[in-house]
Amino acid sequence: MINLYFKNGAILLYNVNDWSTLREQFRIVGEIVGNSLQVPSLPIKISPEEACLLVDKNIVTIQESPKEITKTDAEKRKLEQYETELLDAQTMEYKRARRDQLETVADQIMVKQNNDKTREEIISEELAKLTAVTRDNMIWPTNLSASTSAYENLKPVDINDILKLTTPVKKAVYSDLWHKGYYVTQGDKFGGHFLAYAGDPVCHHALFIVRCKDESERIFSMDLIGFGRLGSSVKKKSVWASLQDNKVSYISMSWLA
After folding, report:
1. Where does the sequence pass through the membrane (predicted)?
2. N or C: which end of the chain has fewer CB within 10 A?
3. Residue 151 has pLDDT above 70, yes or no
4. Closest Cα partner for 239 from 248, 229, 250?
5. Which string of b and e fits 222-254 if b means at least 16 CB within 10 Å?
6. Residue 37 to residue 135: CA distance in whole angstroms
């Protein structure tokens, strides 16, 4: 069972292996929200529609995220030891790489200095000039899972709290598209509620932009025209989705200029 965590209205996943499982086995993409300056990183934000589907399929549990994350004394000692070992390893690797560089140019330095120093003495002098590797400038790894026991024995979240974050029509449309075999992501960037893909979004472009409407909600002509032109401009099908008699219905649109 995969654990998701509910915090400030967001459903989060902190384990990269669990994300890989959800993506590869269950076509759940989520959204990377822990971006660092260099690379995208954890956590993964799971949409309410994705979470409801996963709970219905008994694939995940959703737990209250801890209000305060603290480490035990043992965890603090373990982290300090890990940081020290990491710092020592990076210092050794930095010096080794620099020595390899100096080995290739040591003869040129000897000619330029024109003194009685040996090749090894010159290399040692240059190594002594290196900027020290410290905790401030060392390369820190990206955690692939939570590194504290604060995420153990948490209270499960009532599914009704998750349902409040979506609507019946959006929940039903997402589930229907998923059961039809599509990868489904949020469609805000393209002016819709969902984007539907034939395969993983990393390798495929979206086929459809899907907007969800309640059965009683009117669709005005300007909405039809605008949504149709939007789909045409980004080379995707514009699709309206609604619930009729508890069954998902679709209307696709094509804009012909």
Report:
1. none
2. C
3. no
4. 250
5. eeeeebbebbbeeebbbbbbbbeeeebeeeebe
6. 18
Written as six digits, the tokens of 77 are 């000692």
* Tokens representing residue 235 in the block: 């080379």
How many Å apart are CA 197 and CA 210, to the nearest integer?
A: 11
154-204 pLDDT, tens digit per residue, is 789 999 999 999 999 999 999 999 999 999 999 999 999 999 999 999 999
pTM over 0.85: no
Total number of domains constituting the chain: 3
- Give the Å distances, CA to CA, from 189 to 229, 230, 253: 15, 12, 19
Confirm whether 45 is domain-assigned: yes
Residue 257, in any domain of the structure: no
| Cis amide linkage into residue 43, ω under 30° from 0 | yes
Sequence letter at residue 212: C
Do the bridges between strand 194-197 and strand 206-212 make them parallel or antiparallel, or are there none, so unpaired? antiparallel
What residues contact residue 213 under an 8 Å CB cut-off, 6+ apart?
A: 169, 219, 240, 241, 242
